[in-house]
Amino acid sequence: MNKLLIIDDEDQIRKLLSRLLGLEGYEVIQAVDCTTGLRQAEIHQPQVIICDVRLPDGNGIDLIEKIKKVSPLAELIMLTAHGNIHDGVQAIKNGAFDYITKGDDNNKIVPLISRAMEKSIMSQRLLQLEAEVGKKYSFDSIIGNSKLIHDAILLAQKVATTDIPVLLTGETGTGKEVFAQSIHVASLRKNRAFVAVNCSAFSKELLGSEIFGHKAGSFTGATKDKKGLFEEANNGTIFLDEIGEMEFELQAKLLRIIETGEFLKIGDTKPTKVNVRIIAATNRNLQKEIEENRFREDLFYRLSVFQIHLPSLRDRSEDIELLTRMFIRTFSTKLNIKISSISQEYIEALMRNQWRGNIRELRNVIERSIIVCNDNSLAMTDLPIEILNQQLVNIKDKNSSEFDMSTMERRHIARVLQFTRGNKTETARLLKIGLTTLYRKIEEYGL
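Above: the chain's sequence. Below: its structure in token form.
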């Protein structure tokens, strides 16, 4: 129930308002002076407070700032028997929601309280949402116990509170955008915009328009002025993913922003100034790109003041099980499929895989496994066929050949199990062998 505090030393007014607002469905708390009102506000955290201006032990307008310290989301409505413009202005300056006169505004009190209540509840929801977003993108959200990932997190935490550019390197799918968001959330710009753009997703012309903006009439189809992403990110952070794909001409404009904090929109003659923290990422070797005249050396040195390399998943295989279980929890909730058990063979197969697509590939495999699994249990046969085939190559005997009959048979049985989604009876029928024989071979080959 929404809480409402009335602070007034007149018993009749206080009781009348309490009865009226109680009928409106509010939980009403009462106080007769500043001291009691402040204490009740701290204890009960009401969404709305109706406070008389003149109280036995102080002035209600002076009480506003004190209440805001102990109950920051509360909205205050000041109530007085004598309208006074100066008091009204001061009350609003101190943070009051509104200021009304007793008697004259009786028909306004309920709608006014309703609006104040809505504002307080909205502020509370926004605060909760910001907390959830902060938690989602904090460094605590990065899963892993390996030394490589811990070292990367430690570097990111150290640079987060500065404003210097950061260059994130590593293979595709290693979590560069997650790191960029975590750096932003831990920075002094966390309450400002975080804008991400993939430089490989646009042509040169479109990318220039997207990140720098353009003036109306600057090219065919530019019917009105457009703010670029740098303007959208002003006072915040911009994340330039796949920076190695950016055209040479645009690299020069980016260098100018870093050096001067200003740039020219397409078709404009007046520079636009911005204050933006730049985080860039690439899976390319930019030193090699410089040697082949595809990336500006001066831009590289400005962007790479602080480099952080994100390890591939195969280089931190000890984190695979942790990530797997986290993704299982995530997709179980998303897909409304409760996973009751996970076979050890399933985990071991994931541990042995090379994961060329890194965390992104693992995430996709887990989601697929949950969709195709039987009896809410994850088994090795729920893995994609290409992973199963790789497992057969990995676990074959050291002295066996790729073309040994046992290797070929193991691979064929795994394919059929995958095709039947683990249905042993159907697998035995398709293989034209007995069910007992199939179970023996599954055990023999570790399927």
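The CA atoms of residues 81 and 103 lie 8 Å apart.
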